[in-house]
Amino acid sequence: MSEHGGGPFGSAVDSFDETVDAMLEQSRGNPIVDAVMTAATHVGEFSAIWHATSGIRGVAKGRPDQIVALAIGIGAESLIVNQGLKRLFRRQRPTTSGDDRFEIRTPVTSSFPSGHASAATFAAVTLVGWDGKRSLPLWGSLAALVATSRAYVRIHHASDIVGGVIAGAAIGIVARRIFRRLGLG
User: What does residue 105 show for φ and ψ, rounded to 5 degrees?
Assistant: First the structure.
């Protein structure tokens, strides 16, 4: 059972969250998995991984315009999620500062939806739009790792991750249309 409960979304969501947490608990304590998940959470902070990969990718492809576009898009996505949706839902996190087994930054926003999951999905949707469907395994796997890491370190409920993925995908689809109209791919 979570420290604060996820009550506002009902017992089915609470049950889902508890089931996923129990599944993740089976891997917690494995030094390799712990290291990978903690690292994924850290590189997801402030969308650092997305800005870095976008920068490298944009320079390599000669598309500095896409570097700027992704940075602006992630800024807009963050504003919508962190200052809009999170304030609307104000859901408590499963733990106050994450699981004591993992050293992570204590977030200042509420739990739903996961900003890491939203930003990761937004970035993946955008990058797949630019790089084509063949890039989906790369960007999708990286996004899934960053998103899942948040439930793994117990700073988000699993349903927060689902909400973040949905929000990030929706915002990403809109952004892709805008980027196409602007000639950005």
Answer: -70, 135
From CA 143, how far away is CA 127, in angstroms rounded?
A: 11
Q: How many residues are present in the chain?
A: 185
- List CB contacts of 103: < 8 A, sequence separation 6 or more: 38
List average pLDDT for each run of 10 residues in the chain, which is 185 residues long. 59 95 97 98 97 97 97 98 95 85 90 97 97 96 98 96 98 97 90
Q: Cα–chain-centroid distance for residue 45?
A: 9
Domain boundaries, the chain: 46-181
Q: Angle, to 10 degrees, between the axis of helix 136-152 and the axis of helix 158-181?
A: 150
The H helix count followed by the E strand count for the chain is 8, 0
Say if residues 152 and 42 touch (Cβ distance below 8 Å): no
Statement: 46-181 belongs to CATH 1.25.40.10: no
The angle that helices 136-152 and 48-61 make with each other, rounded to 10 degrees, is: 170
pLDDT attached to residue 100: 86
Cα distances (Å, whole numbers) of residue 48 to 43, 101, 115: 6, 23, 13
- The sign one gets for the Cα dihedral 98, 101, 105, 106 is positive
Q: What share of the chain is helix, strand, coil (3-state, %, to 5)?
A: 75, 0, 25
